[in-house]
Amino acid sequence: MAWYEPDRMLIRARARSQLLRTALEEATAEAVRQERLRIARDLHDATSHAVGVMLLQVSAAEAQLRTDPQLALAALATAKQAGEQAKEASNPLLPGLGASDLPGVDTLRTELVALVQQWRACGMRVKATINPPLLVPPELAVTCYRVVQEALTNASRHAPGGEVEVRVLTHRRQFLVEVEDTGATKAVSSTSSGEMGLAGLRERVVANLGHFTAVSRGKGFRVTARFELPSSRSRS
Asked: How many CB atoms lie within 10 A of CB 232?
């Protein structure tokens, strides 16, 4: 036994080492897959919005080119700005959205107002109530922004001519992010956004311990994300 025990220990150690190596390789492969999915989701959210703005503004410029060249130039300038945003978002060397982006409620409100104004400049009729909670973690702020961004992009694509209402506020101890449209009143483009948009939003919301729904409402559509707010602690 004394003679063969070192051999048995070596065999067991090698088997254990192989198991650990396999587990490490699987964990690494999963981490790579998740990172690729995160990058694809971020690229979709940013570029889909920018492309939607560009298409609307180029169409507006084409319609106004002869009757009002100044408005046509303004529309093309907005389309160019959206293109620059898409170019910046598609740079794989840029860091992902994180703590340095949308760090607080004031920045979140400012970014959301700018987003709404951009779509209004494209001709979308948007009503907005933007009053987020005082304390919003960076990851949750980014998720809130992406929900509004993707929902407005989808409304421009699937509900042209309709009215859209954006609500970002505290409601019954919950942080509510909701975008609802009344449906299309103009011809709907046949361009599809694919399945990455809403599926990506659902993953973002669930990752922040929230509840996500995307449902038809009559002729329109409503996207909702709800997050529980921390309860106030009772004083001793």
From this structure: 7
Distance from CA of residue 165 to its chain's centroid?
17
Nearest to 181 by CA among 123, 122, 127: 127
CA angle 204, 208, 212 (to 5 degrees): 60
Q: In angstroms, rounded to a whole number, what is the distance separating the alpha carbons of residues 130 and 111?
A: 10
Tokens for 224, please give them.
């909702």
* Closest alpha carbon to 152 in 118, 110, 191, 203: 118
- For residues 168 and 142, is the Cβ–Cβ distance under 8 A? no
User: Between β-strands 163-171 and 125-130, what pairing exists: parallel, antiparallel or unpaired?
Assistant: parallel
Provide the pLDDT for residue 189: 62
Q: Which two tokens stand for residue 98?
A: 């994180």
Tens digits of residue pLDDT in 46-75: 666 676 777 677 777 777 777 888 877 777
φ, ψ of residue 81 to 5 degrees: the values are: -60, -45
Which has the closest alpha carbon to 101: 115, 111, 91? Answer: 111
Q: How confident is the model at residue 23 (pLDDT cuts 50, 70, 90)?
A: confident
Tokens 């293109």, residue located: 83
Which region among 41-50, 122-131, 199-208, 209-218 has the lowest average model confidence (pLDDT)?
41-50
Interhelix angle for 5-64 vs 69-89, to 10°? 180
The DSSP H or E segment spanning 128 is strand 125-130
Whole-number Cα distances in Å, 110 to 70, 77, 150: 28, 22, 17
Predicted local confidence at residue 213, as pLDDT:
95
Contacts of 180 (CB under 8 A, 6+ apart): 164, 165, 167, 217, 220, 221, 222, 223
